[in-house]
Amino acid sequence: MAPKKYHHGDLKNALIKAGIKILSKEGIGGLTLRKVARLAGVSHSAPYAHFADKQALIATISTEGFKRLHAALDSAVEANADDPKRQLTEGARAYVQFAMNNADAFQIMFSGVLEKERDYPSFVEISHKTFERVVDIVRACQEAGVLRPAPPEIMAVAVWGQLHGVVSLVLEGQVSGKVLDHCDIQEIAHFALGQMMS
Amino acid sequence: MAPKKYHHGDLKNALIKAGIKILSKEGIGGLTLRKVARLAGVSHSAPYAHFADKQALIATISTEGFKRLHAALDSAVEANADDPKRQLTEGARAYVQFAMNNADAFQIMFSGVLEKERDYPSFVEISHKTFERVVDIVRACQEAGVLRPAPPEIMAVAVWGQLHGVVSLVLEGQVSGKVLDHCDIQEIAHFALGQMMS
DNA sequence: ACCTGAACACCGTTCAAGT
DNA sequence: ACCTGAACACCGTTCAAGT
Predict the structure, then answer these.
(1) What is the CATH number of the domain that holds B144?
(2) Nearest residue in A to B158, CA atom
(3) Could you give the number of structural domains in chain B?
(4) Which residues from chain B sit within 8 angstroms of residue A105, using beta carbons?
(5) Would you tell me how many other CB atoms lie within 10 Å of the CB of residue B9?
(6) Which nucleotides of C are covered by protein (CB under 7 A)?
(7) Tens digit of pLDDT for each residue in B125-181?
């Protein structure tokens, strides 16, 4: 059997996985560099060999989240290659589902926890890529007459914003139970998106 | 001259003001109970005579923010008492302006920093009141044919979500500079809202 | 190159004690 | 009733030292 070298073969990835686990179990408030190290079985200062600071770990976890979100959008597009309207509605469904299934990751990605996102190129890259995916869908929908003519980037912000806003308000508990009793989040999001489609 | 009693006439309010000041200067990451106490000129344990814990202070500051937001919406409604469409567009403008002028307060109010909002009745009350104000505007717009027929509460979530989402994406830096160079946030929000109006 | 342990400056929170 | 100061358990981060 292979001798335990130092402690890990790949501590960096172990730390990321530990961070994601703690995040999903205890929320952002419980995410601590020292806890992450403990869960990975190393000393509290070991993470600093792989991440500059706590923000850097958060940036990596956020980037991971964006990759999964981007992949989900990709699937929705590919599964409906010749139907722009379904690309939009199914992409929207995927977005909402991602947010609901990964509420804490979603919060980390979008709630300003990560302060200097500019400093993390791979975060910027995947986040831009995700936006471009939305622009693609929007452009196809405009050509198909499903969305009104307008600069696609602006329309993409409106469409993404619509979904993002509804999801955020629900996640933050701003939508009263009276509304949520009658329809689930996917329905509300679908209704909201429907207001923009002709 | 009045003798300094203990230290303050109204420490509770002094703490709230100090908290708001620190929040706007250093952001949520710099908001610390001990700093708040220091700025108010009392010992680090003094706040506990007025707030159960840090969350309680945050809840109070959030409530304060909602009161100002609610007042801004009220003004927009009153200033356009007989023009539902303008109530909506001016209310939207007020919402966006509030978010931009109070980005950190906005973040505290909506970004899940406050974990058990249920525990703070006055927060729940003003947040519900604010939502009801949106419902009122939406209902008036539906009667005037400016928004499509639908249950007003659902439509209100869609409308609020639309604005909230666009504002949030911009505040989080998710909207690329390429877009922001061409139009300012008020324009984007107005465009997005316009997609829902007939 | 990768990790440990002690150290420092900071937190949130509690509690006995003071006026 | 309102505030202080010491105390405790926790952080993030740094740094000399070990393999």
Answers:
(1) 1.10.357.10
(2) A192
(3) 2
(4) none
(5) 10
(6) 2-7, 10-16
(7) 999 999 999 999 999 999 999 999 999 999 999 999 999 999 999 999 999 899 999
